[in-house]
Specification:
homodimer, 192 residues, Rossmann fold, two-stranded antiparallel sheet
Amino acid sequence: MQALREAIAMYGQGLGTDIVKVDMFLNHRIDTALLFAMGEELAARFREEKPQIILTVEASGIAIAVAVARAMGNLPVVFAKKSATVVQSPDVAQAKVYSFTHKRENVIRVDKKYLPAGSRVLIIDDFLADGQACQGMMALCAQTDCQVVGVGIGIEKGFMPGGKNLRAMGVKLSSLAIVKSIEDGHILLEDD
Amino acid sequence: MQALREAIAMYGQGLGTDIVKVDMFLNHRIDTALLFAMGEELAARFREEKPQIILTVEASGIAIAVAVARAMGNLPVVFAKKSATVVQSPDVAQAKVYSFTHKRENVIRVDKKYLPAGSRVLIIDDFLADGQACQGMMALCAQTDCQVVGVGIGIEKGFMPGGKNLRAMGVKLSSLAIVKSIEDGHILLEDD
């Protein structure tokens, strides 16, 4: 996606060999126009899958999930939670997820009533790296007998195994930009 | 706001004397059409304040902040973070916040470069209870020499001190619904 490529080129920073820092426009400060353009592009790529629910995980997945949901005619968004709250229902689906960014294991959970059995679910996240968050959300869908009709991602780290593993499983995965490598602070993208 | 009042009446649950459970449409599952209607209503209430940045705090504030930002002509959204990440800049503003929902203290932080000095900031959050998160965001703005031009809230717990304290400070605060009390599981709202 051209607008995202340009934002990455202008504002993205590569740190070391594996960190893609895009907090200028995606996951700390949000460029709202770009966010909704990303939402429309992902919506177009998955429209024929006829999703009924957009599933993401807090926190930074929420913004792009909302943008996709808006572009798909106000689909409901469900965001899995990383911490139990005092108001949570006991009837939850849950899965363990190792966070690459935070270097720790989280349990993600969703109230089962928000993923009704048989629902067609589109998983959306801002990043795909080792795929743990995504596999965790797929596990939530398996526990609730929902069908994952696709996975839409803002930025995929192509040098990490998450995307490859999902494609090998036959998941319909589409990423708006795929990082090939990080070299001397530069983020190199695969061709669209 | 009528649509929000109706959603609270239909789907909200009062727990005990102080918990307003609205995770069916606001902070676990999101009713996307309602979310954007809330965003437009808050945008209308604060348009004359001419904000330049929408500030919120992860996680559940992000959705409504994005909706307000969209309605105000794609203003940038900055969301304060509750945990340090491996990619975070060392030049952060930070403030301590006690979370009523999670019963624990968090430090919220924002990269100072995303709140440039002199910016007109509109603080947006889904809930206002004791006002800790909001006071924390105001502290971030004070540290970065930004001007808080208003605070826009989805649901205010009118029986808790957050709103009263902010109004006493002269903050322009507007909440789309104010809960007067919780009685026998029912959420009673103040008149608009």
